[in-house]
Amino acid sequence: MWNPFSIGKIVEGVASGADSLIQTFRGSTQERDQQSHDEFNTVQKSFAAEFNARTNRSWWDSLWDGFNRMPRPVTFLALVYYFQLAYADPAKFQILNVVLDSIPDRMWGMAFMILGFYFTLKHSQRMQETKGKLAQSDKEFAAMQGRIKALRSQPEAPQVEQLPPGYLTARSEMETGVQEIKGAEDNPRIVEYHKATSLKAGNDETAWCSAFVNWCMLTAGIARTDKANARSWLDWGVPLTEPQEGCVVVFKRGSEAWQGHVGFFVGFQGDQVLCLGGNQGNEINISGYSKSRVLGYRWAKT
Length: 302
Hints:
With 302 residues, the protein is α+β, with helices and mostly antiparallel strands. It has helices at 8-26, 34-48, 59-68, 71-88, 90-101, 105-153, 165-174, 188-194, 209-220, and strands at 238-239, 248-252, 260-269, 272-277, 285-290, 294-299. It contains nine helices and six strands; from the N terminus they run αααααααααββββββ.
């Protein structure tokens, strides 16, 4: 009578059967091509579907999922019981061996083939999940490399070591409390700002935000636009993607394409851009403007 626990030939048969099963689905490494790979994935997905979590699960689904999880722990517990029984109760152990000896060889072969198929399928499923995760990681890594390359290809932002001289001049001038004079009289300080532009207006009623920035730059020894219109500063210096304190900021104003406002960027306050500039409420101060009005941030060329 055949002894099932003389398992040398059985293990060899199971390994051979498992290898044949894998070769049936996957083919050899040398012969596998894209078509067989796709076919293998399709078959694997269909067999592995019963092991995957599903939405809207019923009690029937949960019951069968429980059965699917049983073979490994049951096999382990059966082996522990078998070997423990040999020491705990030799008489029952002998009876159990007689019963096992009475089971036909073909039934043992069928049982081991089923177990071999089960464990091979679970292993293959996990391999596919691992490959999927690795493929996703490769895609994410490639995307990250693309972003890094794109960032490196962008022009470097100017290095800000200290606050710009023109901005510091504007801050000092704000402390003097310059503002327009009501009536026919004009503030001579504002008229002096106008002299820093080609317009050279002789009163404090003409819009003077650009004149003030030009005067600050001229006083600090920085190149300027020499123009009285605010949007002229969009062609000055270099653009900034992120504003730095003291840079020039240009805003939209009015309904005409030429209209605008210009000053020095101070910071953010909520959705407001804080701007130090002239002609803000007829004086030099720090006022807030909506971020949606910003046309650009500029920095002096070095």
